[in-house]
Design brief:
This protein is mainly beta. It contains five helices and 28 strands. Strands 2, 3, 4, 5 and 6 form a five-stranded antiparallel beta sheet that branches. Strands 11, 12, 13, 14 and 15 form a five-stranded antiparallel beta sheet that branches. Helix 3 runs antiparallel to helix 4 (370-381). The chain starts with a helix and ends with a helix.
Length: 429
């Protein structure tokens, strides 16, 4: 072996050892402590619980004309906070993260705010941000309101990063964004969608997912002050996205994941833990149809699970409320929030869409002017003489009063908010 080749091998060996050292030193490879989960507190029972209630609202303003990926958080003072992204289209450089507050006394959503932009995030981080995506808003035990959101410097979602903004006054003001280092190598391809879970030692488990050279769910564990503690794989391979973690007790939780594979028929994946999140079982297919689309879910006090999902094998024409009695293995639909299944595989134009859309808008509840809702929806649903329906990306939480709050993307144009109480749900269980 000549001297030049020897030097090259030594350099390669040094780089490999250094890389292994960096990986070994990174907190993400530390063994998960057996702290156990914090079980969500049982909601208070109000005197009006016996009256079934379902109400609808529109969260966002008419501009920007295209919005997606809303999340919602219940604030300690009884208000709600929702965050979503909007712009000319998904992945465009003009996309920003918007937010609004819901006042239960007024019964409507307030002024639309902008809480994160590519320019502001670039300044905060000291590095270029060109595109933005999914924001996840949630309260943490310290009393702060956090929003984790996706950003991209170059490329598509597979080269994304996660950022965190924090508010100590429930969204009135925000600290500068910080970057979450989810990987020691380039910190690429981590995205968020699901609501967090909390551990007894104060850590926060944020469901995330990976899209580069494989698609799989993960759990990103954060410290109470917003640093990455570790990251756990929830699946291996190229088949799952956007996990939702459902805590049943201090030791047991179920994970549901979006179908992203090639196997047929397409079904949502599930796995579980019985040791407080230290280990997770291999994923298995549930019987819930999933057309490669996000879902939302919650665990009820009686052990049953409820989910909101596009329970179809193709397209996102239907959005249903479902229940499972066996930890997510089998599901049955108990209500259709949206249903245009009669249009599956059917070609139709604006003349068919308009009267149906007009009827739908009447049921949306308080929000922007009707003409702007119709205008945006038709522009987003039709390409010339070919139109389609789309209801997707649900996000479901429960308030301290026991009411359920669902937000989702309505026909690519608006964020719809549905509020229902336990009595309304019980009628369907």
């Amino acid at each position: 072996m000549n001297r030049k080749a020897s030097r090259g091998l030594r350099a390669l060996a040094f780089a490999a050892i250094a890389g292994v050292s960096v990986w070994a030193a990174w907190p993400g490879v530390q063994t998960a402590p057996a702290a156990g989960f914090v079980v969500p507190a049982a909601p208070a029972r109000s005197g009006e619980a016996s009256v079934p209630q379902l109400a609808s609202f529109v969260v966002n303003a008419a501009e920007p004309a295209r919005v997606h990926a809303a999340s919602i958080a219940a604030l300690p003072d009884g208000r709600l906070f929702s965050a979503w992204f909007g712009g000319s289209r998904e992945g465009a450089t003009d996309v920003k993260v918007h937010a609004a507050f819901f006042d239960p006394a007024a019964g409507r959503w307030g002024e639309q705010l902008t809480i994160a932009t590519p320019e502001q995030t670039t300044r905060d981080l000291g590095r270029l941000v060109r595109k933005m995506g999914n924001p996840v808003a949630f309260m943490v035990p310290s009393g702060e309101l956090w929003v984790v959101y996706v950003s991209v410097t170059v490329g598509g979602w597979a080269t994304s990063h996660l950022n965190l903004i924090r508010s100590s006054d429930q969204g009135r003001t925000w600290a500068p964004a910080t970057r979450l280092v989810a990987s020691p190598f380039l910190n690429l391809s981590t995205l968020a969608k699901g609501a967090p879970v909390f551990f007894a030692d104060g850590d926060i488990g944020l469901p995330v997912y990976h899209e580069m050279a494989g698609k799989f769910g993960e759990l990103l564990v954060l410290t109470p002050d917003g640093r990455v503690r570790r990251k756990q794989r929830l699946d291996h391979g190229n088949r799952s996205l956007q996990p939702v973690v459902l805590v049943k007790d201090a030791r047991a939780a179920v994970v549901l994941q979006r179908f992203a594979g090639e196997s047929k028929p397409p079904r949502a994946w599930r796995s579980e833990t019985r040791d407080g999140g230290r280990t997770w079982s291999a994923v298995e297919a549930s019987d819930l149809a999933n057309p490669n689309s996000a879902l939302a879910a919650l665990a009820l006090e009686d052990g049953r699970l409820i989910a909101v999902a596009n329970d179809t094998e193709d397209e996102r024409l239907r959005l249903s409320l479902l229940v499972s009695d066996d930890d997510g293995r089998h599901w049955r639909a108990i209500h259709r929030f949206e249903d245009r299944e009669e249009f599956l595989g059917r070609s139709f134009g604006p003349d068919v869409l308009r009267p149906l859309l007009t009827r739908d808008v009447e049921s949306l509840g308080p929000g922007p002017a009707t003409d702007s809702v119709l205008r945006n929806a038709e522009a987003n649903l039709c390409r010339g003489e070919t139109c389609s329906w789309q209801y997707d990306y649900p996000y479901l939480v429960r308030g301290a009063d026991g009411d359920f709050h669902l937000v989702y993307t309505w026909n690519r144009s608006f964020i719809r908010h549905l509020r229902f109480n336990r009595a309304w749900l019980e009628e369907r269980l």
